[in-house]
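TEACHING EXERCISE
Course module: macromolecular assemblies
Task: Read the component lines below, then compare them to the predicted structure of the full complex.
Student: A.B.
Group: 4
Components provided:
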Amino acid sequence: MISITNLILVFLFGSLISYLLTKTNKVLGSIFNFLISSYALFYVWNVNVGKTEKLFNVFGDIESSLKVTYLGKFFAIVSFLVLAFVSFFIIDWIRSNSKNSAAFNAFYLLMAGGSLGVFFANDLITLYIFWEIAVLGSFLIIPMGNKDSKKAAINYAVMSAIGSYMYLFATFSIFNRYGVISFDRVINKLSNESSTSYIWFIILFISSAGIVKSGIFPLHTWLRKAYGSSPDAFTAAFSGQLSKLGSYVLAISFAVFPTMKLFPQFYHGIPTLNYLLIWLGNISIILGTFMAIRQNDMKQLIAYSSIANGGYILIGLASLDSIGFAGGLFHVFNHAIISVMVFLSFALVILRTGTSKIDEMGGLIWRMPMTFVTYLVGIISLAGIPPTSGFISKWMIFNTLVRKGMFITAAIAFIGSVGSFLYVFRPLAGVFLGQLKKKHYNLKEGSFIMLLPMLLMVALTVLLGVYPKPILDLIVSVETELGIKPLEHSGIIIKTPLGSWNTLTVFIMFAVGFIIALVLYLLFPKAKKVELTNQYTGAEFLYNYDLYHYATGFYRFIERLYDKHPSFEKLYEMVSTFFKSMGDFITGLVYKTGPSGYVFWISIIILIIYWVRW
Amino acid sequence: MINTILKVMAVLFTGFFVGLTLEGVARKVIARIQRRYGPPWYQNFIDLFKTFSKHGITHGWIFDFGVLMALGGTIATLAFVPLGNLIAFPGLDNVFIILYLWAIGALGMAMGMVGSGNPNASIGVARALTQMMGYEVPYLVVLAGVMFYYKTSSVSALMYSQADKWTLLKMPIGGIIAFVSLMGMLGKKPFDTPIAPAEIASGPMVELSAKYMGFLMLMHTFSIFVEISMFVNIFLGISNYFTFLIKFTIVWILATMISAVLPRFRIEQVVKFYWKVPLSLAFVQVLFVLLGWVF
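Instructor-supplied answer key:
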């Protein structure tokens, strides 16, 4: 086994090799990416917890180092699971990517290397450096998407900068005050800190980096644009892996920094700061759910859903309860693999049809059945329906909210959960079901290489929904490490003070129900297969069945109720317009188009210089 | 093992026979309210066996698969529901499991029906999902209050904790809201917007024929059984198998009678209603629970 430092160096230099390899042959470079990512997955799965490595010196005596913790290991496993699968998909997908493939592959590895460093960083500065590497990699990939992507990239960079500079500010402040930056020493110093407002400032500013990355209100606006217009296969890694960096920082600021001891408890054992942030999570859930219901662009729809799911993760992690925290961590894993399933199936659909608008498609199930199955299982998991793994995490979060008597948060979580049925059904009905458009008659299913990672993810989510032990074991070790009472489970039975449930029994019962239905189905007379155009039309004569597809304004009747919603996106746009016009004003003042303006300014400056007698 | 299988079979057969019978009775009740004679009580059995004997049409594999998933999911859900003291899976009958497992049947139906390619079905499904968002939230908030109060989320444990008094009497506001939500779940008027025969040709059911129709009739019967059983178990005190069926019949007939005299809401009115009145009352109820004002 090589050291972690070397593995990160492999990624950083590998990005250079990947660039050159992709220049010569696109597929070869992508295979290289896949091999490195899957080696990293193997590595982080087997890495020993507690391993420490010195890295470099930043400020003389302050040493940067890497340390493997259970928390970091959990996030690294989730990350590289996503990255390895997505890079396998890219092997074939990249052939259709006309421009910048070499840069795409290079930045992909750069991002992966950066996130590896983030998860194993042992101090605030190292985390920040690798964080910026990961952000840089993703920031450079986004403009390779569709025509809106350049704007989206800038938006993403600005939002990301807000978070990371707040984080950096807190880091410098800590260094200034205590002269230490490694996590355990900072925590030690913070525990003895007398000023409450300083603790508030530190934790809030550090968590803000996580809030931006996981798309929590009010810093969520980049998500729609960045997910909506980044390259299609990359969006899967973006949502599945990169936004989990944010969840990692949130987990650090809630649990590694002992908020339980630093802050007074506010409501049923939840610290004040966490309670405040839970409210941000609540707003994110409401906003993400209702905006997702409105979207006609399927990638933007799931982008909003990611905001809502970021809210669930935040609520779970912030509760710091043995079950709630486990639910939050499990939801990190679930949302990662759900993102892969959903966004990869979208990538395939967009590759074949060339559009991401829901109402421009329809009936694709008849041409792309495997893609449909991936999307279907993905959304079953996203909506949190058993027997997929998505239900387990949602159940844990609900369980905590009910047990702690947090009824408003619970109501919002329920709205988000039922609302997710609504928005995930919109692409299902609009893109995959319904009437097949005439122009899509000759579509082909994706190739085996593209379908394989998608179907493996489907198998994984069902398998872990029935037998969640591997993930639960990891979570238990994380909780033990962080001093949270570990979750009680026995592989398939999850025990909580509010009752338990058995994943296997639920699955078997569902299988039994399905078999009963199947037997009945086979027992009774066979039906005749008719064309999709053979429909009840209410005696209307139809000549164009493309129009007989209900996808435009799918939930118009409910959207109408909140058409005039307040929008933070608009608010930010107003702010940016303000700064832009200020800039225009100054530009107009300083940079005159004619020579007379320059003469004017030069004479003024010369006068000033004479006046002060330099 | 054998014991569990026998209990599951008992639950399913109860669902089948009692459910279909009561649906027939409901038709009779509605007819009498409207001063008609009405069909015999066993009419639904006749309908079901008739549909199963016919040769129908299908719109491809997703149509078939959706129907199978719908019935399979609902059968699975029903097996977890305790019928009085007839509990197939003691300790595993979690409220959330039952509600979310039921959703897989609903998703199967929605998927299969939209897969038929008829826009009426899509509109019906879109409405049904929207209506779900309406009734599910106040219902879940009330149930959260009940679960918080009794410190358990197992349906049978919730039933057995009502030894001194029914939850309906302890938390009257919650009980009424749960009943109003139950009306929405059952798709009874004024909340029958997703079906709306005159507007969208029975919505999701528009393309169904023969055994497909039969499957969804069965699914509907089982769903009704799941929904009302939840209400009876959680709110109407401890019951054994027979008292459970009596309470079940009373709730069902009451819901039918109320629905027989009401017109239909538009879909956005449904959501507005549920989120204005029952949801705010649900918050009042959980506030009472938090303050300890439980009678």
